[in-house]
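Need tokens for this chain, all 337 residues.
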Amino acid sequence: MRHWFRVTLGASVVVLGVVSLSSTADAGQAFKAARTADGQPDLQGVWDFRNGTPLERPKEFENKPFLTEQEIAAYEQQIAIARDQDRRDQNVQAKVAGEETTGDVARAYNDFWWDFGKKVTGTKRTSLIIDPPDGKLPPLTDLGKARADKRSEVRARIPETPEDRGVSERCLMGFNAGPPMSPSAYNNNMQLVQTKDSVAIVNEMVHNVRIIPLDGRPFTNVPQWSGESRGRWEGDTLVVETRGFYGEDNTSLQNQGPNLNLTERFTRVAPDQLKYEYTINDPSTWTKPWSVEVMMVQNNQPLYEYACHEGNYGMPNSLSAARYQEKAAAEAKKGSR
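Here are the structure tokens for all 337 residues:
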């Protein structure tokens, strides 16, 4: 399965999502979530985390954490124009490169297959980042910059091994599943299931499953693709701490290092809304921690399997093409002597 998406943590305008929250809990009234048979807040269901708000605050909204209704309408129109222009630019680039285009598609899917958003979330925020207050990612450390530069060089060259390609392209991890979960191009759904002693989070993207114990057991310190998670209740909020991620840059979180410590918070704030917050603490990558808030909306549709692998023909085809390019370059060099 090929993945075509544009999610860049450093981009100032990233259009993500389609959900406009249908009902927001009255700020003046404390919502009381229903309880499970064990007395825990009931967070269960399929939750849609598509979101029309960019990760980082766009320059035009500098020092402005929230939008007015009039500004939202104008911004949504801007989103539509920007997406249309982006598609036109891709077609132009493809034609310059001698590639064929069909209708509104070049190098990727057309709009029918994308699940980008057209609406700003009900919170009216100008960025998903809520800390730092400027809505921007903290600067990378020197080590973080070196790691990012090295990875960019590897991805720019002809792939030598499967490891030269990203984990989503290798069907190991979903590009929005994380953890942390990040609104992206499509498959922005997760299902949460509870028992007395554990919580399971199933992501639609590459159908990754996290089993999160709630019984206070210690971490085993065994590196895993999704890290190792432990959960606890703080009032009506489920708090999940995850550490022990396998390697570097192996989640949907760009530039992530092996010492990443992730804290997620899940709070049901309305019958159809789940507030999802996470804090990134990775001193080897960013100069200080940063936090994000994403409002999820309940989805009454079932979660379907996303069979990413399907034999993963794309990977051997990509590597075969790379070997062909190398052979052609070697023969051309030999012939020029």
